[in-house]
Amino acid sequence: VGLNNIPSLLSLCFYYLTGIGSPTCVNQTQANGSIILVPQSTQPLFSTQIFFEILLFLMFLSLLSFVGLNNIPSVAQLKFLRKKNDKIPAHPGSTENNYLQADYPPSSPSDKITPLRYALLLLAQALVAFFSHGVLPSLQSYSCLPYGSKAYHYTANLTNIMTTLACFLAYFSLVKRIRIIAILSSIAGVMVMYSIVTALQSPHPLLVGSVMGSVLIVANWVLCAGLISYIKLCLAAIFRAQEGKGLFWYGAVNQLGSASGALVIFLLINYTTLFSSVKEC
């Protein structure tokens, strides 16, 4: 998951290099002589064609890496050795047994969870995916834009950075205690509710027009994104330690939750009047 966020982080860096900032409001005279304010975007340092060519180059590097991992002799030999060792019967005290245990360490009895907790963790992952992949991305503009284009700009960019940092943090320190994950999930739930409430109150949410409101909304979105990413990795580590198709069911409920959240928020935004967007000028 951490490596999966690196491309978005690189894209973000190139986006900053374009020099595109927030649009400014300028006067425009109408045919009847009236003057109105219209948004005007700043000119980028290089064209969008160059930006997409850079992204194409990154995708080409990813393709080369994929082809290399499947065709490099040393990698292919390592895959062959793993398959061969997997078929060797392990005998107590033999060197093969020690070798196999080094490659495939058995799950600790403490890693096993009851069927009830297994189901509850799957439900937790489905809810995390429901909000993080389905609901929140569509509500970010409704929640942040009332506080200004800069608040939205910082939120959209810093969340990508925080997500990547959270994934690298999980690489060094990963929590597998369900109680701690439940506490972290509760904190993330409060942040999610704050984001939803501000989106519902758009274009006049809490503390709008104040510096405190802008700082609070940016901090809430950024910390929420990092915390959710960390929770997802912790849940993935727990399911990975289970016997059977733990990661399969983890991925299945992740996709189901994401699709359900996207469908629900699509219907709410397009077929109800719950959310109102703010005008730029």
TrEMBL record:
It catalyses: riboflavin(in) = riboflavin(out). GO terms for molecular function: riboflavin transmembrane transporter activity. GO terms for cellular component: plasma membrane. It is a multi-pass membrane protein. The keyword Cell membrane applies. Pfam families: SLC52_ribofla_tr. Keywords: Cell membrane, Membrane, Transmembrane, Transmembrane helix, Transport. The chain crosses the membrane at residues 50-72, 118-139, 151-174, 181-200, 206-235, 247-269. It comes from the Eukaryota. It is found in: Cell membrane. Belongs to the riboflavin transporter family. Plasma membrane transporter mediating the uptake by cells of the water soluble vitamin B2/riboflavin that plays a key role in biochemical oxidation-reduction reactions of the carbohydrate, lipid, and amino acid metabolism. This is Riboflavin transporter.
